[in-house]
Amino acid sequence: MTFPPAPDPRAAPAAAITENGFLGGRLRVRQPARGYRAGVDPVLLAASVPARAGQSVLELGCGVGTALLCLGARVPGLSLTGVEVQPGYAALARENAALNGVEMVVEEADLAALPPDLRQRRFNHVIANPPYFSRTASTPAQDTGREVAMGEATPLAAWVEVAARRLAPKGHASFIHRAERLPDLLAALSARLGSVEVIPLLPRAGRAASLVICRARKGGRAAFRLHAGVVMHAGDRHDEDRESYTLPIRAVLRDGAALPLAED
Question: For the Methyltransferase small domain, which residue ranges apply (predicted)?
Fold first, then answer.
C-alpha cells in the first residue's frame, strides 16, 4: 500500500510511504519507503520505560511515532506527546496515532526551541532515541530524512539537558544509543540526573554490547546500576534467513512485553 509523500521537500520521504506491522501486527505504522525507517530500537526503548497508567510521556525526536505507540500499547491510559523537527515525519506520526486509535500530540519543533506550552509542562517520563553517529567521524547520509535522524547535529548533552528540564520531580529519562557512546551519555546524565542505570543489549551471548539503554531519575540518589546484558539473538551466529530472537526479546517485539531484566 502506498500513499503520497509528505509535502515538505526538506524532510519528505523521497518515494512512497509503506505501512508496516509492529508488535505482531497490533500496530500499523506508516513510514518512508526510503530514508530513515523505524526498526527494533524504538520498540526496545518503549519496552524499557517504567511507565504506569495515568502518567505523562514526552518523546524527543519521535520520528513517525513508533516508540510512543508501542509504549501506549503496553501501558494504557498514558498521556503521550512527541516532538519532531522534520515536518514530513511529524505528519506521519499524527497519521499513525489516528490509524491506531491512539491519542497523541505531536509538536513540530526543534528540541532546542520547544514551543512555549511545552516549556511550561513537566512529564513523568522523557524518552529519546538520539541520532547515533557523530559526523566528525562518519559520512552523512544522502537522504535528508535519514541524515537528520541518524547524524548528530545537536550534541548528545543537549538532548539530556532538554530531557532533564522537562522532567517532573522523580521523573525518569530513558535513552537508547550505541554502546560506544556510553561514556558521553553517562557524563551528560550524571551532570543533570541521578539513579543512573545501564541496560546493555548484546547481539548474542558472549558478544560485546552493540546498544545500551540508559535510564536516570530527576532527583534520584540511588547508586549507579549496571544490569546484566540482555541477549537479543539465540545461537552463536546467524543461521540462514530465520528469525533468531531469544524468547524474551521475541515477547517484546511481537507481544509488546516489557524488557526483561535479570535483577528485577
Answer: 44-138
CA dihedral 203, 209, 210, 213 (to 10 degrees): 110
Angle subtended by helix axes 247-255 and 41-48, to nearest 10: 90
Give the other-Cβ count within 10 Å of 10's Cβ: 11
Type of residue at 79: S
Helix (H/G/I), strand (E/B), else coil: 11: coil
CATH fold for the domain made of 36-255: Rossmann fold (3.40.50)
3-state DSSP call for residue 189? Answer: helix
Where along the chain do its domains lie? 36-255
- What are the beta bridge partners of residue 211? 178, 201
Q: 0.90 exceeded by the pTM?
A: no
For residue range 128-184, what is the model confidence (pLDDT) as tens digits?
999 985 535 544 444 444 434 444 468 999 999 999 999 999 999 999 999 999 999
Q: How far apart are CA 130 and CA 176, in angstroms?
A: 7
Residue 150 parent element (H or E): helix 144-150
Rounded Cα distance between 199 and 183, Å, is: 14
Q: What cell numbers appear for 159 in the block?
A: 538532548
Q: What is the pLDDT of residues 197-223, one digit of tens each?
A: 999 999 999 999 999 999 999 999 999
Task: Measure the CA–CA gap between 30 and 56, rounded to whole angstroms.
Answer: 24
**Closest C-alpha among 156, 152, 147, 195 to residue 35:** 147
Contact predicate 70/47, CB 8 Å: yes
